[in-house]
Amino acid sequence: MKGRKKVDKPRLYKTLKTFDSDSPDKYSTTFWFYSDNEKHLIAVSKKLQLFGYSTEHCGSSAGYVFLLIVKLEISTKFDDYEQLWNEFDELARENAIVFNGWETEHTFEE
């Protein structure tokens, strides 16, 4: 059985750097990851903090899994979210965790 070769993913980091645009409409967005190994989540949390993400939670969750929630104020287009989904999914696979998606907070004016 061949071992997986670790390869740096500069495409992911390039995408992360471009997400904070000059648009006046920025939204608080949380990104959710799960794993049965807390150390894997901690490693990903540290990587994402380098790009301005704050760690909202990293530790126990309901059940027997661990949860990582990172947060960033971003403004972006649908295509960017699709790209980010693919790259977070790849980051998760490389770190033996699961990317579960994101939640975006919107405040509507009346």
Structure keywords:
Alpha-Beta Plaits, 35% helix, 3 helices, globular, alpha+beta, 110 residues
Give me the secondary-structure category: alpha+beta
- Tell me the fraction of residues in β-strands, as a range: 25-35%
Looking at the structure, the CATH topology is: Alpha-Beta Plaits
Helices and strands, in N-to-C order?
Answer: HEHEEHE
**Which residues sit in consecutive blocks of at least 5 with pLDDT less than 50?**
1-7
Your description of this structure?
This protein has 110 residues and is of the alpha+beta class. The protein has a single domain, classed as RraB-like (Alpha-Beta Plaits), CATH 3.30.70.970. The protein contains three helices and four strands. A four-stranded antiparallel sheet has the order 2-3-1-4, with helices on one face. Helix 1 runs antiparallel to helix 3 (78-94). The longest helix is centred in the last third of the chain and has 17 residues, at 78-94. The radius of gyration is 15 Å and the shape is globular. The N and C termini lie far apart (60 Å). The model is unreliable at 1-7 (pLDDT under 50).
What is shown here, in short?
With about 110 residues, the protein is an alpha+beta fold.
